[in-house]
Design brief:
heterodimer; A: Rossmann fold; seven-stranded mixed sheet; globular; B: mainly alpha; PH-domain like; Helicase, Ruva Protein, domain 3; Cyclin A, domain 1; three-stranded antiparallel sheet; 41 helices; elongated; GTPase activation (chain B); Rab-GAP-TBC_dom (chain B)
Amino acid sequence: MADNAGAPKPSSSVKLVLLGEAAVGKSSLVLRFVNDDFQENKEPTIGAWSHRPSNFTLTLISAAFLTQKCNLPTRTIKFEIWDTAGQERFASLAPMYYRNAQSALVVYDITKPSSLTKAKHWVAELQRQASPGIVIALVGNKLDLAGPANEESGVTDTEEEETQGDEENRRAISTQEAKAYAEEEGLLFYETSAKTGENVQTVFEAIANAIPESTLKPRGAGGLGGAGRGGAGEQAPVNVGDASRPKEGCAC
Amino acid sequence: MFSSLIQKAATYLTEAPAPSSANRPNKAAIFRSYFRLPDNQTPLQEITCELTAPTGDHYVGKLYLSEAFLCFTLYPPSSSSAAPATAGVGFTLPLCAVRRVERLHSRSYMFALAITTWHGAASTKEERLTLQFTGMRSSCESFCDRLKRALRIQMSEVKNMKLLTETCYSEYLLGTTSESKADGKKREKDPPDAGLGMLFRYPGDSRKLRDRSKMRLWAEYLRENGRNVTLIRQPTFHKLVRVGLPNRLRGEIWELTSGSMYLRMFNPRLYQDTIKEFEGRHSLSIDEIEKDLNRSLPEYRGYQHEEGIARLRRVLGAYSWVNEDVGYCQAMNIVTAALLIYMSEEQAFFLLSTLCDRLIPGYYSTTMYGTLLDQRVFESLVEKTMPILWEHLNKADVQLSVVSLPWFLSLYINSMPLVFAFRVLDVFFLEGPKVLFQIGLAILRINGEELLDATDDGAFISILKSYFSRLDESAHPRSENEKLRAVTRFQELMVVAFKEFSQITASTVSEERIKHKEAVMSSISSFAKRTQLRNLGPEAKRLDAADLSIIYDRFHAALYERQLRDAAEQEKRKKQVKSSSASTKSNISSNPLSTSSNPTTMDYNTFRDFLSTIAAWGVADTPPPPPQTNPYTSTAYQPPPQEPADHDFIHRLFRRFDSDLSNALSLPNVVSGLAGIVGHRKDLMHTITYWFELYDDDGDGRIDREGILRISEALLFVTRRSLPPPSPTAEIDPSSIFLAAVSGFIRRCFEYADEHVYSPTDPLSPPPLIDLPDLPSPPSAMSPSGEKKNLRDSNPVLDPKRPLFVTLPTFRMVVLADETLERFFESGWADTFILSKNRNPNNVLSAPMDSGLHAFPFSGQVPSLKGIRGVLDGIVDEATRVAAEVRRRMEENQAAEIQEEEEEGEKEGVGAEEGDRELLKGAEAETVEMGRVRSEEGEEGERRRRSLKVVEERGEVEWGVEEGEGKS
């Protein structure tokens, strides 16, 4: 599956770490990205014996390691993904995994306000402790639980939303709120659904695009280029250019 | 979540296996961990002796006696002992399992005992141990004496021992084989629970595992050497463990070699009681457990079934309740699921707690410091033993622990196929945690060549994954030698681990742990600190990073100190209990599994400790009571040098900080509390409002007479140590300026107070104060008492019978009317907190001063001024005390008794009323003296001070006399 994308595109590997509160859907996101698969209920975090697809190189107690290639028009990116455990006490192990990571996916659950708070902590931690050029994407998962009407339009009045029926819309964090935060911090920002697959490929493509070329050759050497930050949150879908054909983006 | 880590890490890292011991594991702790004994055992006697086992083998070694055990080993335990006693020849015999002890008739210079064990007599042939003592006759005698006494006490445990043995598979095993001989009918009962394997089959092919022949060998061994509690370990025992335990005995031998069997014996009801007690209760741990139940060894059939899941749920749940500090950590589900395949719930419960407390302490704690530390140790061992591989890893920038951490955390259960992981566990329980390191090193050594080609995490991981999946294959498939071909990769792994890495011993591991603990601890605590500081609310932004850092440190220091103190006291109590009753159960039964919990919040007393480290006024004036007769010997704990103050004001501050009304302060509480003070430095109006609210108890925007007095008292209280020493150049002593300001404050408050229109139906209005009995008026300074009444009439506001109050605007006005107070509220108050070291605090009166003022000891730096200081000191003290006295009187008259103040009264050593008078006299005398010494202040100042006292003392006001003084 390696070089099927075509001729001599340069290929490089990128270390990516997933962080976020327990049960926000980190593993589901990766599983969807790597395997285009989603397992209802069986999901959550660590040990993850229940899903052990062939791509899972090894499933570990504190984090799972997976790889997936992502073909961009000009190059191939091989993601080496560390999917960390969400249980709070495992947080002290996180530095082990984000060390030298060139990119990070900080995931929260759009139906759970506390998970955004936690995500913000992770962002702060990464900005202070991880490699200087790290590309961080903030991802609000479980978009499928938001009402169908307002996928894109920001939900401003969250309180009103909450009073509505559970089935309809369980969104508790508005797109605008999270987006504004992401812009302020210079993060990529997406809302995804691992269940439907919506935006999942897009996120990884956006990250792949945002990694500055200069940091790619010597693996792990964090470049100083700011890694496509700054306003990326808003622009990112455009940067990818063709968000309309996610399937093609990462063909594996 | 991380809050407790400093203490936790500290407590763990400074000790070896036994909890709650001080820096170095003491002799008793080493002894316990060596023989795998419960925490209440101590070595009482020891003697050299020769053991003759029932099999006829002789061994010379040491015999130890503890409260409930008789232990024999060839090598005496020491801090650097290589392995636990279970790894060598010997026995650990509970005294309750001793049926008979006989003194052998022998030649006069010989001293020998024959011990018949519980199983000895039950079995067909007479089975006894012979112990021949070597040593002075007297020491032999004293050993025997002690033994006799201990045996008698332990008689009561026989019942528990019987209960235990009934659940041991070995009893069933040997019982059925000798069934034909004795009571055959009884033996037909069901075998005891030997884990889920009995219901769902044990993992692996039992024929391939040669389970039957192993079982035969074990039956033979157990018959000759005793079983479960009475087992004697001979070299065969270790060989039998190394080749892998048979399925149905595995749980029992794990229990025995880890020592968890003894815990279970002495706590026969703990598991069931815990289940019952906490049934249906919820906690974070319970929720987390629930999420993981379906992900714990799901490939094993038992866990695809409700029965297996239910057992796992109960054991993990019970443990999370018994040890709430650890609660539940992912990976415990995997380990417990593995245990439950081979043992009953109760057995697994005690083995799990032995694991968490002893074998791998800190692995599953909230910070996982044990895990991180052992990873560091492992890395350092790799660097030492395989330098080339280590260098390669560094070059390739692969972090070893991302690979090895899960091995340790799940004891290889999640990494290797189950059958092999259990073989590792067999040895692990016998020989201790060094086994984890040996296996890990062997894995790397065996795969070394291939690993040298791997250049990233992915390649590294996949090499090892493929290795683990082929452990059952031949290690030398192409070898000509058939025997060599038959060696599996797993056997090879065991050989490499225990032969090539035999130099990795328990002491290697503990030395390495000591070497790395500091680095690991500091990285954990800095991680926790920045996480926690980031977690604080928006209020925290009012404080700068340095302040936050200081608050964090002091907060945790206070918690830690308090914990040490509590622990020391507990220890003391324990000792008392112990000395009063020699029963072994005295402290086992009081929840042996729970370690002292690590608080993350401060109660009021801890808050006082905390304040005493960040504010000068937080330190009490009275020196701490002299240390009693060595109360804290057991830990290295020393009481803090400064006794924290206790004051109504501190109570109020505590309540104010406690914004979530939990009666405890978390770090965010404290930070936002302090941010509300220090963060508003220079914000005069805010601070005035803050103080007003502190004393507006019912939140109705009014502070009554009582409150006003309390405020003035508090003002004196918080400034009593923060006042600068009178500098020789300053004309007026700052303390007296402040005193004057406070007295002016009271006066103005009363003057401008609104009168509460009293109506009996108004619930807001306090009941009228009862008239004070006429105090003998102080000799001087009073207007003639005749006029008093008139005055009172003419100024009804001053009448104590009439309720009055100040509102915030009045309060504000009164404060602003005085420059000194204004300065205090503007910045002085905030500056009484000593945070960042480099801040140059302004004095509360913002008079020029040296920066060291906060710490200025009242004992006086400047000898020549000592006298004056003493007097001043007295005045401030007196003023606060008098105020307190007044209140006491008022309250007494209202038949309300407040204990605190009563105590204060008692302290005076005189009857309350007399005390008052004395007090007053004292105050008088001092003011007079004061006036003399500081004549430059003039009479006015003195009068003011005196009248302040009178006001406070009598609760009534004679301001009329001094009306002329005017307002500044």
